[in-house]
Amino acid sequence: MLAWKQRRKPPAEPDGAGQAGQRDIGGPARPASAEPLLVVSGVERSFDVGHQKLRVLKGIDLKLYSEQLVMLKGRSGSGKTTLMNLMGGLDVPTKGQIRFRGQPFHEWDDDRRTAVRRKDIGFIFQAYALLPLLSAYENVELSLRMAGTPRSEWKKRITSCLELVGLAKRMHHRPFELSGGEQQRVAIAKAIAHRPSLLLADEPTAELDSQMAAQVMAVFREIVAEEKLSICMTTHDTTIMEVADHVYEMADGVFV
Ligand SMILES: Nc1ncnc2c1ncn2[C@@H]1O[C@H](COP(=O)(O)OP(=O)(O)OP(=O)(O)O)[C@@H](O)[C@H]1O
């Protein structure tokens, strides 16, 4: 059984002391020299809807450091997914900057961002995005194939990822033979197999009951510690927020 993990890392840092919208859960001080993994500065995103401009993000600043788990909460439509898409290089801001490991996503075309994404960012969505006819093992394998990982490394890496999410005994089950929580844990193994430094998860516990959600969160803490990556996730579930190093609250396109 997976246990809740002790937080071992310092919290994400606001872009300026006392930044609104951020709940600091605590932790030891970070060395002053630590470089952020991801920097979001002055980000705005608008969409053209008919003849109107819909302003969805209205000035977002955020710094995410390595080995941190941060959450975005906020009402439906507040802009959480829009922000996550920008953080993952799936979209570019209308204004402002997104730097991932110093790389200017806001200036790059889709091909360049896609190349970084394939190597260094993992995604988890609410609906597990597993291929139904493939086993857990084969689903994870697919991700290594896509990332161009040498075939000789596959077996060891797939096994260790599935062990990490507590599914060593379910490797050859197909998604329909697994519970919702187990399927989501396969999705996590799949998302981290290529060793990304950033994992983005949009409502990863939305379809799960509270016990399964707690297991998924325990796995998240475990992989932050073991794989040394950072996680940014969205959620509506207040019962899991204590697991985060930080919680940012969004309302109407800003942190409140
Ligand atoms: N491509 C787009 N074109 C037009 N409007 C968009 C587009 N993407 C998002 N929006 C609008 O932006 C607003 C914010 O959407 P977003 O999905 O970011 O919210 P959210 O906080 O993630 O909501 P939820 O919790 O329901 O997932 C919504 O009003 C949505 O309709």
UniProtKB/TrEMBL annotation:
Gene3D superfamilies membership: P-loop containing nucleotide triphosphate hydrolases
GO cellular component: membrane protein complex; plasma membrane
Every ABC transporter domain range: 38-256
Keyword field contains Transport: yes
Keyword Glycoprotein in record: no
Signal sequence interval, chain numbering: none
CDD domains for the chain: ABC_MJ0796_LolCDE_FtsE
InterPro entries in alphabetical order: AAA+_ATPase (IPR003593), ABC_transporter-like_ATP-bd (IPR003439), ABC_transporter-like_CS (IPR017871), ABC_transpr_LolD-like (IPR015854), MacB-like_ATP-bd (IPR017911), P-loop_NTPase (IPR027417)
Region Disordered, annotated ranges: 1-31
Keyword terms of this UniProt record: ATP-binding, Nucleotide-binding, Transport
Pfam families referenced in this protein's UniProt entry, alphabetically: ABC_tran
Name assigned to this protein: ABC transporter ATP-binding protein
Protein source organism: Cohnella zeiphila
